C-alpha cells in the first residue's frame, strides 16, 4: 500500500504483462482476481488467491514493501518473504560483529587466549573507573568503595570488567547482544555467591533497555565497544539517556590514525595474531576529538582523556600521554535541571505568542523593508 503515489508507466506495463500471462493459464489454474482502487492520496490493492496454489505464483516480483491479501477470509495479512522488515527504532548492533564474537564466546576467561589483552587491561581501566567515581562521593566503605552505585556495563562480553566492578561493591548490569556471551558470563559469576547477588546479565542491545532504565545508572561503561557499533551518535545518545544527572560515562577505544591501522590491524591481527582477524574495522575507529564533539552535543562534558599503550611482549598496559593508539575517556552528564519549571513553561508560552504576533504583523507589513526588533 502506497500513500500519495501513483503507478508509473513502467509499473502499468509490468501489471499488464502479468495480466496477459495469467489469461493464458486460467484454464489450467484457479481463478486469480485482481482489483485496484485509485484515489488522490492512496492506492490500495486486494489480491484473492487460494492458499493452496499460492506457491505457483511465488516467482512474481512486486516493488511494493507490503501487500494485503484476502484468502478465504482466513489470512488477514501477508508480507512477502523477500521483503526486509524495518524497525521503527534504530539499532547500533552490527550483525557481522555479532558473528565474530559468537565464535569466541567460550574463550572469554582464557587468560592466555584471544582475550588476554582485555584481561590485562583491567589493571588500568578498573582503577580509572573507581577513582573517577570516588570523586563524586563524600565517603565510601573500606573494601567496597563503589557500594550503593549502580553501573551499566555495555557490551560486557563474558563479564571480564563486570565482575571486578561488582567486587568493588557496585550493583552492575551487564548487557551484550550475543546470547552466548551472556551465558558464559552467567556461568562464571555463578561460582561466586557474592557476585551472583550484585551482578545481573541481559542478552540485549543498549537501545532495547533505554526506556525502562532512563536516568537509572550512576555510571555507564563502554570499554572496547564503540569501535564495533554501526551508529556511534545513537549509541552515545542512549548512554546519556540511561545516566542519572551528574552520572559518569567511561569509554575505552582506539584512535583513528595511520598508526592504529598499522599496529591495531596489520600487526595485531594479520602478523602477530594477538587479536583474531576481522575483529576490528579501521573505518569504525574514532578520534578523541570526534568522540568529544559527540559527547558534548549530548550534554556530556569530557573530564579526562588519557592514552593507553599495550606491550605485546610483556602482555601489560600502561598509561601514556600519547593517544594515537588506545585511549580512555571520562565524561559527566550535566546535573542541571532537565525538565522546565512552571515559570519556564510560562516564559516559553509568552515567547511563542510574541513570535506568532510578530509573524502576523510581518505578513501585514509585507517584505519590502527590514524591521529591527
Automatic annotation (TrEMBL):
GO terms for molecular function: 3-demethylubiquinol 3-O-methyltransferase activity; 3-demethylubiquinone 3-O-methyltransferase activity; metal ion binding; polyprenyldihydroxybenzoate methyltransferase activity. S-adenosyl-L-methionine binds at residues 125, 155, 176, 223. Its EC number is 2.1.1.64, 2.1.1.-, 2.1.1.114. It is a peripheral membrane protein. One of its GO terms (biological process) is methylation. Component of a multi-subunit COQ enzyme complex, composed of at least COQ3, COQ4, COQ5, COQ6, COQ7 and COQ9. This is Ubiquinone biosynthesis O-methyltransferase, mitochondrial. It comes from Physeter macrocephalus. The gene is COQ3.
Amino acid at each position: 500500500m502506497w500513500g500519495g503515489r501513483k503507478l508509473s508507466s513502467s509499473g502499468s506495463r509490468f501489471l499488464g504483462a502479468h495480466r496477459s500471462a495469467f489469461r493464458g493459464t486460467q484454464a489450467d489454474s484457479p481463478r486469480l482476481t485482481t482489483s485496484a482502487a485509485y484515489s488522490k492520496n492512496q492506492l490500495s490493492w486486494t489480491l484473492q488467491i487460494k492458499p493452496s496454489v499460492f506457491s505457483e505464483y511465488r516467482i512474481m516480483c512486486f516493488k511494493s514493501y507490503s501487500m494485503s491479501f484476502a484468502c478465504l477470509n482466513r489470512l488477514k495479512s501477508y508480507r512477502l518473504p523477500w521483503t526486509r522488515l524495518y524497525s521503527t527504532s534504530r539499532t547500533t548492533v552490527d550483525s557481522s560483529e555479532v558473528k565474530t564474537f559468537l565464535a569466541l564466546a567460550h574463550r572469554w576467561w582464557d587468560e592466555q587466549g584471544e582475550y588476554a589483552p582485555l584481561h590485562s587491561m583491567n589493571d588500568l581501566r578498573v582503577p580509572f573507573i573507581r577513582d573517577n567515581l570516588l570523586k563524586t562521593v563524600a565517603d565510601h566503605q573500606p573494601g567496597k568503595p563503589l557500594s550503593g552505585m549502580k553501573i551499566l556495563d555495555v557490551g560486557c562480553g563474558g563479564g571480564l570488567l563486570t565482575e571486578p566492578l561488582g567486587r568493588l561493591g557496585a550493583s552492575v548490569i551487564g548487557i551484550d547482544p550475543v546470547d552466548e556471551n551472556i551465558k558464559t558470563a552467567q556461568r562464571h559469576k555463578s561460582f561466586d555467591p557474592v557476585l551472583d547477588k550484585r551482578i545481573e546479565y541481559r542478552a540485549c542491545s543498549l537501545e532495547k533497555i533505554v526506556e525502562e532504565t532512563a536516568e537509572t545508572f550512576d555510571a555507564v561503561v563502554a570499554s572496547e565497544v564503540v569501535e564495533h557499533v554501526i551508529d556511534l551518535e545513537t549509541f552515545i545518545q542512549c548512554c546519556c539517556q540511561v545516566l542519572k544527572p551528574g552520572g559518569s560515562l567511561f569509554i575505552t577505544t582506539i584512535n583513528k590514525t595511520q598508526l592504529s591501522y598499522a599496529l591495531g590491524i596489520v600487526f595485531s591481527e594479520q602478523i602477530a595474531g594477538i587479536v583474531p582477524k576481522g575483529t576490528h574495522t579501521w573505518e569504525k575507529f574514532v578520534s578523541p576529538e570526534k568522540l568529544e564533539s559527540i559527547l558534548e552535543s549530548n550534554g556530556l562534558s569530557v573530564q579526562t582523556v588519557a592514552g593507553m599503550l599495550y606491550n605485546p611482549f610483556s602482555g601489560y598496559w600502561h598509561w601514556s600521554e600519547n593517544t594515537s593508539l588506545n585511549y580512555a575517556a571520562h565524561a559527566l552528564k550535566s546535573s542541571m535541571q532537565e525538565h522546565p519549571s512552571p515559570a519556564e513553561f510560562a516564559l516559553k508560552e509568552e515567547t511563542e505568542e510574541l513570535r506568532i504576533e510578530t509573524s502576523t504583523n510581518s505578513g501585514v507589513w509585507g517584505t519590502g523593508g527590514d524591521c529591527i526588533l
